[in-house]
Amino acid sequence: MSVPGLGNAVDERFLAHRLRSTSVAGLVGALTAGSLFLYRYYAQHRLDWDLFAVVAIMAAVKVGVLLWYRRTD
Known about the structure:
mainly alpha, 10% strand
């Protein structure tokens, strides 16, 4: 089955793969920022609040979307 308007270029498998890849990429980005924040805190004794903010926002968005889908599904 293909997506209407896009023909055979984009199908359900493509959309499923895109969904999984962006989910994995988001988790890897959050883990990388969190690891860098902890490394700088423990090794260099320096707090980088911008990295903490990135991790906190990514976690808040993940939980918010989870709750939204749980409520509307």
